[in-house]
Amino acid sequence: MSLPLLIAVAACYLVAALLYVNLLLTQRSGMDTLARRTLVAGLLLHTAAFVTLHRESDSALWTPVQDSISFMAYAIVALWLIFQGRWRVKVLGALVSPLAFLLVLYATLPISGHGPPESIRSIWPHFHILLSVIGFAFLAIAFAAGLIYLVQDRELKLRRGAGLARVAFRLPPLEVLDRVNTICLLYGFPILTVGMIMGALWESGRTGRFAWEPHILFSLAAWVLYLLIVFFRLVWHQRGRRAALLSVIGFLLLTSSYLGVRALGLGS
Amino acid sequence: MNLLLAGISHRTAPVAIRERYVFPEADPEAPLRSLAAEAALAESMVLSTCNRVEAIAAAADRERAEGALRGWLARAHGHSLEAIAPHLYLYEGGEVAGHVFRVASSLDSLVVGEPQILGQLKSAYRAAGEVGTVGPVLNRLLHRAFSVAKRVRTETGVAEAAVSVSSMAVQLAMRIFDTLADKRVVLLGAGEMIKTAARHLRAQGAGQMLVLNRTLDRAKELAEEVGAEAGPLSALDEALPGADIVLASLADSPGAVTVTAVREALRHRDNRTMFLIDIAVPRNVDPAVNDLGNVYLYNLDDLAELADANAGGRQAEAERAERIVREEAGSFMRWFTALEAVPTITSLTHWGEEVRRAELQKAIAALHPVSEEQRRVLEGLTDAIVRKLLHRPIARIREESEAGQGKASIVSARHLFRLDEDS
Mean pLDDT lowest for which of A11-20, A113-122, B68-77, B380-389? Predict the structure, then answer.
């Protein structure tokens, strides 16, 4: 993927992140529009980056790990831009944009990890990656909502009027955060599940066996945790703080399975 | 005469302590009678609200009166002097006037500028008037206090800037809930606070409201006024699972909402978030309720702290109000200290009048017969002489007393004119 373009994308996401933090701290009107436009600009550049990538190599869209990570950032920003108006959670951008920035930054780093060993003509890996990444993006937004829920909950429980509480007054209400968390979980989990199944089918179809590699184990652990969270919410009627906490832990586990393990060169 | 005030308030004691010293609203005369029974006090009254319990008294013997006030505050609730001592404040003289004026103007309120305190002070004064424990000093003090409160309200922005308890509660609710339209509010109690809060919540678009009160009639009355349903307090356990917001302000009902009841309610409502606001003293809701997940409990102190933190530009208005209070307290104290000169001035005038009458009688007897016209001239003449002669000493005594330095001239006047000798 074209490095200068990617750096421009990262810069856009970083500026958007700063604008969102500014919005959170000052509540200045117009800041929100400015931040959103910066994100849109970043997303357009990001699209251009994918197009050039496709032109350069006709094999696949995202063979190297970096490209799939870059695609994660792309999906998160796109989802966020689609839903932020409807969910009325603008300041969540202060968490989503830095996340996208970090992912793109990560994608620009020269890391030894590599994608599938050879380019495969099969359609499966594409679907595997596409669905996994979209599922991941939903869960990332669930994570952001969960994290902010925890902050808001803590501040409300402490019953203070100073410090962080001044900022907490500008965070979305708990009910909205809980709703966003639930919706993203209920979309993200099934999509991720299908994506993971496709990956497994492709992997076993290619090698004839199922490889129990670290990143697969981590992903599986994260998936089981998310399954529990879905149960927790739907069957046991749990919500609020505990559900938010679990979605934060689930996402950290998922991220470490995907990025961490690969960065350490343990994965395939 | 000495003016004294002893009390505890939100400034010196947290709600957990305060609630032990609050007098039941149901019988405002009982504390007045027990305080008036203290022999040392000439005049007295009691102010007991959610945020303060204060006893105000005028007494001849300062030491004895102070002991009486301290002892009474502790004993009235069966506590020891040691228990109340760290929270107790005692004011005397000008401090009392300043304090009462600040209280009346809502400058000493938990939520500065809230209007309820003036009404509470008025009813405390009315009750004291009915029982007959107030006299000229407290009458004047309280009347001045009411007019100071009026001045502060009209001349400063303190009242407008007031962040009321209910608007603070609504702000908090908006951090918890997306909208109030689909929420159910349960109001416990039917007093002034609940009425204000109910109106506020209605204005913010609160969906359903239910008023529960010990006396069903009052609940119905309020419910009708704000467009809510009404029920008896015994329906609380059934109502709790449906309640997204609970606003509690029941008088004399410590622990009306228990942890068990809220936990049970949460189970029935699938752990949906509950917001409880407890503005009663003593508190209606067990404080441990805040430890439950997805439940947020705020009491009066918490709301006030938040209101304070949110208030920015009220400082200047508060300072202007403080200036009015100082000015008025000074003028009250001039009147009050001049009070000590009053008996001397009265005796002096009496003595003058006695002398004049005696001499007039003698003169009329010697001139006999005297026409009506001549008699009027003599009356006028003697009266003018006595009044003019006494004017200078009396004016000097009054002047010095108002400045708080009347003692010397009072003593010498009584000595020179032999006012303390039986004639």
Answer: A113-122
pTM of the model: 0.67
Q: What is the pLDDT of residue B95?
A: 92
Average pLDDT score, chain B: 86
B255-258: list long-range contacts, CB under 8 Å, 24+ apart. B255/B283, B255/B284, B255/B285, B255/B286, B256/B188, B256/B284, B256/B285, B257/B188, B257/B284, B257/B285, B257/B286, B257/B289, B258/B286
In chain B, the residue whose alpha carbon lies closest to the alpha carbon of A172 is: B175
Residue A42's contacts (CB-CB under 8 Å, 6 or more residues apart) are A9, A11, A12, A13, A16, A77, A100
State residue A58's pLDDT score: 52
Q: β-strand B2-9 against B52-59: which pairing, if any?
A: antiparallel
Nearest-by-Cβ selection for B272 from A171, A173, A239: A239
Residues of chain B contacting A, Cβ within 8 Å: 171-172, 174-178, 270-273, 290, 293-294, 296, 298, 302, 305-310
The answer to whether the CB atoms of B306 and A161 lie below 8 A apart is yes
- ipTM reported for the complex, 2 dp: 0.80
Using a CB–CB cut-off of 8 Å, the residues of A that contact B are 88, 152, 156-157, 159-162, 165-166, 168-169, 171, 173-176, 178-179, 237-242
Give the DSSP letter string of B88-148. Answer: -EEEETHHHHHHHHHHHTTSSSSSTT-THHHHHHHHHHHHHHHHT---HHHHHHHHHHHHH
- Give catalytic residue positions of B: 50
Number of H helices, E strands in chain B: 18, 10
Does the distance separating the beta carbons of A161 and B309 come in below 8 Å?
Answer: yes
Closest partner CB to A240 (pick from B273, B308, B309) = B273
Q: What pLDDT sits at residue B130?
A: 93
The encoded tokens of residue A135 equal 């599922």
> Beta B245-248 vs B295-299: how paired, if at all?
unpaired
